[in-house]
Design a protein that fits this description.
By secondary structure, this protein is of the alpha+beta class. It folds into three domains: about 30-250, no CATH class; about 265-335; about 345-460, Heat Shock Protein 90, CATH 3.30.565.10. It contains 16 helices and seven strands. A five-stranded mixed sheet has the order 3-4-5-7-6, with helices on one face. A two-stranded antiparallel sheet has the order 1-2. A hairpin with a 6-residue loop joins strand 6 (about 445-450) and strand 7. Helix 8 packs antiparallel against helix 10.
Amino acid sequence: MSEESAAPDPYRGTQPEMGREPPPPRTPLEALRRLPHRRFLLSSWPWRSLLHLASTAAVGAVLAGLIVPITFPLLVLADAVEEIARGHSRPDWFLAALLGSGLALLLALGPLVAVPVAALERWRLRLVHPRLTSGHRPTGRGVLRWARIRYTEAATWREFAYLLLLIVVVDVLSWTVLYWFAGVGPFLIATPVITALGETVAVFPWEFDTPLSTLPLAALGTLLLLLTPYAAALAAHANAALARVLLDDRGTEELRSELVEVTRSRARLVDAFEAERRRIERDLHDGAQQQLISLAMQVGLARMDAPPGSEMERTLASVHGQAKEIIGSLREIVHGIHPKVLSDRGLPAALPELADRSAVPVRTHVNLPGRLPAHVENTAYYVAAESLSNVTKHAGATEVRLNAVLDGDTLVLETTDDGRGGADPGGGTGLTGLADRVAVVGGRIWLSSPPGGPTRLRAEIPCLPSG
């Protein structure tokens, strides 16, 4: 092997593959890590970081003045505590009143300031960070609705926390970097010129009055000025990292859209399930049931032709009776799958008919203005039927009350019995299946069944269109 072929290739492993250039940096810290120092200093990142720090200092100064009226009781409390430390006394009730009123005022009005400030911050942070998205839900019209939604959102209180940190921490950090690196550095570099003009420069306890004596100051200023881009980039990245934690949506918009799609798909599944139930009911009613009726009629005619009292007549009579029983059972099955009265006249007619067929006496109270969405009526009827069936099988009750009312856009269905109580969802009584069925359409179920009774089951079903 020749020396030329054995020599290592200095470029091997360092050149990117053709057509696969790395993406540009998205934050100042990425620029610091990935770009050579010369390229970083010649890029826009130092200037963007400095502009971000300067605007942060300006915003923080304005906010500090705006938030004084909100925090005035807390500021008075701080003065009172300082006076107590000097030996002055203040009543405890006075300190407690300042603390309570200050916190109440801050929590009541702080979010009103935090929400627009957060929107401004997300816009400013585009200088040093990819776009942040808001985690707020749409509120629609109305001041009260806006306040109710905003004050109950976690995103609002994260923005409120960022507002406090912006004033107390981020603004101080920005001013510190700007003062020491972008302010003190150029001043120290200019000290030889200042002393050459006959002025005296005072730095802490030392005084300098000749250009030669200020050369160490100029060297220190040069070092600070050279470090300014790096300090600004690190400070800007720290602010962006804090904002990403507190101001970014963190995927809730995507999650919310997924939940909406899941809810819609659940409703579509319910509709498809109900359509399949009706198809089975139609097939049983128009197919198997009609064939059984025809068979029973033929057996009845054959029985009439058989000699009275003969073995054939007795056999045909037995078959005829069994056919009638099968037809009756099939009618009950068909009725249980999807009663015709529910399709034709809705819950106001279907629930009383269901109560009339119950083995336990049922008092009904149905107050519904009209027809509800099909999936709501089907679910409510299923809950009522299963509840009455559970009462008959397990409760040992003598009376049941069945109520169905519309509360706003929610159907409230309640069954209350005077049985023995102690209903257990895990005991195989079908209560878990009821809860799952109601949850599919976005509803909820509450159960109260102390030992000795009474047992109360309450289902709340949103009356919203499916799809």
